Amino acid sequence: MPLSIFLPTTATGSAPRWSGEAGLAPVAGIGGSAPSEREFGVYAIVRTGGRQQKVAVGDVIEVDRLATKEVGDTVELSTLLVVDGETVTSDPWVLAGVKVQAEVLDHHKGEKIRIQKYKNKTGYRRRMGHRQLHTQLKVTEIPAPAAK
């Protein structure tokens, strides 16, 4: 049964009617199909640089700078979860050997962040800026976890 949401309708020149279903009209397009009807792709949750990201094959992601890698090198990212169709694998013992493969595309600086400090009545004012170093990766392979 599809999900229906009802919004109040107004009579001409009067306030909205909130009592009962008499003044409510269904809104089309709200809700969605059940999860069993959706198409699930292959994706993984990986950890790099203290952060977690959802990736699929072909995705381009930015991570904190990987100083030991050059452009064109292959990087292995540790996997926390793998979804393959309707099969979800999150067991750390199974995922211990599963590493997502990614290719280094670029090293660059991120957007400038400007910081200002101010203390009232003292004349203390400081302006600083910072640009974080990033590495751009393209996910090339998400291996299927081995069955238990």
SSE map:
Blueprint: E1 5-8, E2 24-27, E3 42-48, E4 51-55, E5 60-64, E6 74-84, E7 87-89, H1 92-95, E8 99-109, E9 113-119, E10 124-130, E11 133-141
Antiparallel strand pairs: 1-2, 3-4, 3-6, 5-11, 6-7, 6-8, 8-11, 9-10
Task: Summarize it.
The protein is built from 1 helix and 11 strands, in the order βββββββαββββ. It has 148 residues and is an all-beta fold.
Task: Tell me about this structure.
The chain has one helix at 92-95, and strands at 5-8, 24-27, 42-48, 51-55, 60-64, 74-84, 87-89, 99-109, 113-119, 124-130, 133-141. By secondary structure, it is an all-beta fold. The chain has 2 domains: 1-38, no CATH class; 39-141, no CATH class. Strands 3, 4, 5, 6, 7, 8 and 11 form a 7-stranded antiparallel β-sheet that branches. It has a two-stranded antiparallel sheet with strand order 1-2. A hairpin with a 2-residue loop joins strand 3 (42-48) and strand 4 (51-55). It starts with a strand and ends in a 7-residue tail after the last strand.
Largest sheet: 7 strands, antiparallel
| Beta fraction | over 45%
Helical content (DSSP H or I, runs of 4+): under 10%
Number of folding domains? 2
Order of helices and strands: EEEEEEEHEEEE
Query: Given the C-alpha coordinates, what overall shape results?
Result: elongated
Q: How far apart are the first and last residues' alpha carbons, in Å?
A: 37 Å
What's the pLDDT, averaged over the residues? 82
Could you tell me the number of beta strands?
Answer: 11
Rg value = 25 Å
* Parts with pLDDT < 50 across at least 5 consecutive residues: 32-38
Structural category? mainly beta
- Total DSSP helices: 1
